[in-house]
């Protein structure tokens, strides 16, 4: 057993910049907050959620819930029904889902003194019980609402807000957070865990994901490895306005090359897939199986710009391999991220998108529609754009899944060669051996600390 007094977790977040009222621009911030913050709903372990009881009306538009007595702010004050209800209503106004679902009568909920106003869609039934009424442009209201509140959701997750408190970091957390001597410290089962900076990859006790571990140059043999129960998906979205990809054959060759490169990686981590869905998943159809053979760069391509959702500490295997093949073909590869100039990101030839395949949900499809410039990318792929918007409209990728809409999406993206299913891959958590606590994935693929 180590005698170290403060453990360190490499989270790539150098400071806490959490704002509950905006969609995180850097997904790694969201990953960190998903570790720290309690979700509204945790079906796997209701006692560890903010709402330990809830139910929907048959049409999904009315949501009644009871706040858990274990849901408390940083100073130990219990979360009230009003705070929980306002947090959901405000969260829905700030998240991208507000275009499809929101609480009735909350148009002014972002105005000053919002907590003193009355809202027709919010009813406080008791100090710890409330009812919300939703208005919606999608058919599956229940699926969208639950996805935002559920353990395991990501991009549209919402959290409660402490009223009359200027400190935006007063959160309902799994582990109390303190700021000590310029450092953020979590109290995990009475052990201190420090949040390290992105520049300090070495000598940490815990790591999220392989790329953080690889950036640390740490010996993996010294760590306990925990594998995600569900994979991520990686897709490549062609820009239909790109001159080099007006030609379908050009898109098909690059699609095949990207799939070929990624299929040659570590089989324990990377999972080759025939299409956007695999056998047994709603939406699967073997007719829409994509090629994955080696292809040279098409003639006439001199430069290829690829947009990445985040910065990477170093180039990954597939990035280096693509550059190697491109160099032989005298093609220049340029990588840009959403942190670069907006016009460069929007004008890239291809955009990479990463998201989770979540149990029986395929929410990544709806999340993709919200990514910067995606609708512009697809503007000249009419069938794909229509299918994607239909999935969003019907909330086809949340429970219950709409198989017909998912098959239309698979068919359109295949026939137009617009959105390429590049690879699926597993995620890993690393905890140094001989520690009293370790990082672990839950069944819903949340990360939590557990005692050994």
TrEMBL record:
It comes from the Bacteria. This is Solute-binding protein family 5 domain-containing protein. It comes from Fluviispira sanaruensis.
């Amino acid at each position: 057993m180590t005698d170290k007094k403060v453990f360190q977790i490499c989270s790539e977040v150098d400071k806490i910049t959490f704002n509950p009222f905006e969609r995180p621009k850097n997904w790694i911030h969201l990953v960190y907050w998903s570790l720290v913050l309690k979700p509204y709903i945790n079906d796997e372990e209701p006692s560890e959620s903010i709402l330990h009881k809830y139910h929907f009306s048959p049409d999904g538009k009315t949501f009644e819930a009871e706040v858990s007595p274990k849901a408390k702010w940083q100073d130990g004050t219990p979360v009230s029904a009003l705070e929980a209800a306002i947090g959901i209503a405000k969260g829905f106004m700030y998240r991208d889902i507000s275009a499809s679902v929101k609480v009735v009568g909350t148009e002014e909920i972002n105005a000053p003194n919002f907590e003193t106003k009355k809202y027709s869609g919010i009813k406080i039934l008791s100090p710890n019980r409330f009812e919300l009424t939703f208005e919606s442009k999608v058919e599956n209201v229940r699926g969208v609402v639950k996805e935002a509140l559920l353990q395991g959701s990501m991009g549209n997750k919402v959290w409660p807000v402490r009223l009359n408190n200027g400190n935006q970091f007063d959160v309902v957390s799994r582990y109390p957070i303190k700021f000590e001597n310029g450092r953020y410290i979590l109290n995990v089962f009475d052990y201190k865990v420090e949040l390290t900076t992105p520049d300090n990859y070495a000598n940490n006790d815990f790591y999220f994901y392989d790329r953080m571990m690889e950036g640390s140059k740490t010996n993996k043999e010294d760590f306990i490895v925990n594998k995600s129960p569900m994979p991520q998906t990686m897709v490549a979205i062609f820009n239909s306005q790109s001159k080099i990809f007006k030609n379908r054959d050009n898109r098909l060759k690059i699609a095949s090359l990207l799939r070929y490169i990624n299929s040659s990686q570590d089989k324990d981590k990377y999972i080759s897939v025939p299409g956007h869905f695999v056998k047994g998943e709603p939406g699967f159809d073997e007719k829409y199986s994509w090629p994955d053979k080696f292809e040279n760069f098409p003639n006439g391509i001199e430069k290829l710009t690829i947009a990445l959702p985040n910065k990477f500490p170093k180039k990954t295997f597939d990035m280096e391999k693509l550059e190697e093949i491109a160099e032989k073909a005298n093609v220049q590869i340029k990588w840009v991220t959403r942190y670069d100039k907006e016009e460069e990101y929007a004008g890239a030839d291809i955009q990479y998108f990463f998201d989770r395949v979540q149990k029986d949900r395929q929410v990544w499809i709806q999340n993709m529609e919200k990514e910067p410039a995606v609708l512009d990318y697809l503007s000249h792929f009419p069938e794909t754009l229509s299918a994607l918007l239909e999935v969003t409209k019907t909330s086809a990728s949340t429970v219950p899944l709409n198989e017909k809409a998912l098959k239309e999406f698979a068919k359109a993206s295949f026939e137009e060669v617009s959105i390429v299913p590049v690879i699926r891959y597993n995620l890993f958590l690393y905890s140094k051996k001989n520690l009293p606590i370790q990082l672990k994935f839950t069944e819903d693929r949340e990360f939590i600390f557990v005692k050994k």
